[in-house]
From TrEMBL:
Residues 43-217 form the VWFA domain. PROSITE patterns: C_TYPE_LECTIN_2, VWFA. It comes from Pristionchus mayeri. Gene3D superfamilies: Mannose-Binding Protein A, subunit A, von Willebrand factor, type A domain. Residues 236-352 form the C-type lectin domain. This is C-type lectin. InterPro entries: C-type_lectin-like, C-type_lectin-like/link_sf, CTDL_fold, VWF_A, vWFA_dom_sf. Pfam families: Lectin_C, VWA_2. Transmembrane segments: none annotated.
Length: 363
């Protein structure tokens, strides 16, 4: 670990900075503000509940929802951004209707009917979806970077141990649950637990479903850690991060991040600082450069070009020395104070990257 001390007292400024990535907002009509439906690039498997728990009317609504969503998504692999869509009809066993090959205009209507099964086995359906994803990667290995989404349209209470599903949610995928409630029925806590955070909603909700695809499309690759914001469904709205534990001068740290398509991590609130402290602990380092340096005109500038006024300088910081032009953070205490030092000092650093998102594969 790097070993030198700095003061750790001072006041923390107010955080006014919002998450900079993955704006999935829509207007009152469901029209996206800044993103486009046809730039979504996901691998999606719909699980269609055909048990008695679902009921005929709900099944018809669910089928209509799948077809409507599919017609909006681009499924042509010749396009730069496209999604692969699969559909599994689930009763006492899984029946594949589309094997990640559903295209615009394809129908589910007439291919799924209510069965005598009382409720579906949620875990069996999950395993069938995983098999479809795995087989799909064998035929299209270039889709390894695409996020996997399992979308349940169901009213069956999951009675299984969800550990395997939770591992999927924590690593490479998203579980969306659309609970088609019968009239007068109370929502089932088990279905909320089945869904990834922020991905549960009830009945036929076309607008929320499309917005969920935008949110699911915001993620980091497995070699980076995601930092989120106020919406738990958008895991990487604050960017993707990777620590470099070897100490180097500030300019080398900054250039290395840029060469890798990122920048030195910027800190705009205490939540972000605590997240970076966790990365520092994993990398076993006490101090890191942050993307904050003093220009020739004497002004401190952020690496992300923001004009946020948040600071967390330690006592007597920043130093007025002509050579103390680069900032670092002390991760040895929960105060997480900053100090200015000579830019030639050798410190570890953390790079910040733009996440994968709708319309962006450079991640």
């Amino acid at each position: 670990k790097v070993g030198f001390l700095l003061p750790i007292v001072g006041l923390v400024g107010a955080a006014t900075y919002s998450a900079p990535y993955c704006d999935c907002r829509v207007d009152k009509l469901g029209i996206p503000y800044t993103w486009k439906y046809d730039n979504i690039w996901l691998d999606i498997v719909f699980i269609l509940d055909t048990s008695q728990a679902m009921g005929k009317t709900a099944l018809e609504d669910a089928v209509g929802l799948i077809e409507s969503l599919n017609d909006v998504l681009v499924t042509d692999p010749k396009e730069p951004f496209y999604s692969r869509v699969g559909v599994i009809s689930m009763a006492d066993s899984a029946k594949v209707i589309y094997n990640l090959n559903m295209t615009s205009g394809d129908q589910v209507h007439g291919k799924a009917e209510i069965t005598d099964t009382l409720e579906i086995e949620v875990l069996v359906a999950f395993e069938a979806a995983l098999n479809m994803f795995n087989d799909g990667l064998k035929t299209r290995p270039d889709r390894v970077k695409a996020r996997q989404v399992i979308y349940y349209l169901t009213d069956s209470d999951p009675k299984n141990n969800l550990n395997g599903i939770n591992q999927f949610k924590a690593s490479k995928g998203v579980i969306v649950v659309n609970n088609f409630l019968q009239e007068g029925e109370v929502e089932q806590p088990g279905l909320k637990a089945l869904a990834s955070d922020g991905y549960y909603f009830s009945n036929d909700n076309y607008g929320l479903a499309l917005q969920a695809f935008c949110k699911a499309n915001c993620f980091c690759q497995s070699d980076k850690d995601a930092y989120g914001g106020s919406d738990p469904a958008i895991k990487a709205s604050g960017g993707c991060y990777h620590p470099a534990p070897v100490g180097v001068p500030y300019s080398k740290a900054k250039q290395t991040c840029v060469n890798q398509g990122g920048m030195l991590a910027a800190i705009h609130d205490m939540g972000k600082a605590r997240f970076m402290q966790q990365l520092m602990n994993k990398a076993r380092t006490d101090y890191v450069w942050i993307g904050f340096d003093k220009t020739d005109d004497g002004q401190w500038r952020w690496s992300d070009q923001s004009r946020d006024f948040y600071t967390n300088w330690g006592m007597y910081e920043p130093k007025r020395s002509d050579v103390a032009k680069c900032a670092f953070m002390d991760g040895t205490t929960d105060a997480l104070k900053w100090a200015a030092t000579n830019c030639q000092a050798g410190l570890p650093y953390i790079c910040q990257y733009t996440p994968c998102s709708v319309g962006n594969k450079n991640c």
